[in-house]
Amino acid sequence: xxxxxxxxxxxxxxEDLVDLFATYGEVRQCSLPLDRETGRKRGxxxxxxxxxxxxxxxxxxxQDVEWMGRMIRVNKATPxxxxxxxxxxxxPRPRSGRGGGYGGGGYGDRDRSARVGGSVR
Length: 121
What we know:
alpha+beta; 4-stranded antiparallel beta sheet
């Protein structure tokens, strides 16, 4: 099982989390995901301990505890909808001549020349 730790201080480092969770058992893995565009921490982490009992104790003890000035949320991590993985794509999107900017049209912006007297030609 993996533990989700939310509402983290942006000052928290991996070592800080390892120290916090090491009191419950061996920390196998700890990651603080970064924003792809800015490279800044996203305010949450994933921690994996060596055994499920240790993880459950950590969840029970640390839920809604103030740590580094923030009330952290600690619970069992759940897989993302749609299987996760993914990513990819990237790069600029092709320009179709419509949409994309402030003046690019939107809802109700259709070619109205096909209408005559309330009916469609």
